Amino acid sequence: MSRFEALRKIQSGELLTSNGLRTKPRFITTMVTCGAGAVVDISAGGLCVHSKKSPGEPSDQVHTMTVQSPWGTCQLDVKVVWTKKLSRRLFETGLAFVDPTQAKNLLRICWDPIDGPSKAA
């Protein structure tokens, strides 16, 4: 899928199910971080983060986070949707965008202009 096709689907909301959970495509990221840890993948509805500390229970509380990559930085408003403990000191967390249009900014900073996005999953 091209970058432009992905942006079109993000704008139209085609990539979200009726309950707000993510559907494909998910873009696996490299060299993308946030205050909580490493961003594993992104999609139209949210992102997945690996962290050393538990982010807490899923709730409707909105958190503002800064995501950084070699190609830029952006601010996102997110909610914790799910948390899974992977090991003693590693947690995987699903975060949903409060405003799905913010996914466009995130996709732009996760896009390597030479190699394209890391990988579509």
Overview of this protein structure:
- 15% of the residues lie in helices and 44% in strands.
- The chain is mainly beta.
- The protein has one domain (3-120): Thrombin, subunit H (Beta Barrel).
- It has a six-stranded antiparallel barrel. A two-stranded antiparallel ribbon has the order 8-9.
- It is globular and about 40 Å long.
Q: What would you say about this model in short?
A:
This protein has helices spanning 3-12, 102-109; strands spanning 27-28, 33-34, 37-42, 46-51, 63-69, 72-87, 90-97, 111-112, 116-117, 119-120.
How are the elements arranged and paired?
Blueprint (H helix, E strand, L loop, with lengths): L2 H10 L14 E2 L4 E2 L2 E6 L3 E6 L11 E7 L2 E16 L2 E8 L4 H8 L1 E2 L3 E2 L1 E2 L1
Antiparallel strand pairs: 1-3, 1-10, 2-3, 2-5, 3-4, 4-7, 5-6, 6-7, 8-9
Features:
121 residues; mainly beta; Thrombin, subunit H; 6-stranded antiparallel β-barrel; two-stranded antiparallel sheet; 2 helices; 10 strands; globular
Query: Which structural class best describes the helix and strand composition?
Result: mainly beta
Strand order of the largest sheet: 2-3-4-7-6-5
Helix-strand string: HEEEEEEEHEEE
CATH architecture: Beta Barrel
Overall morphology? globular
Biggest sheet overview:
6 strands, antiparallel, barrel
Question: How many helices in DSSP terms?
Answer: 2
Total beta strands = 10
What is the quaternary state of this protein? single chain
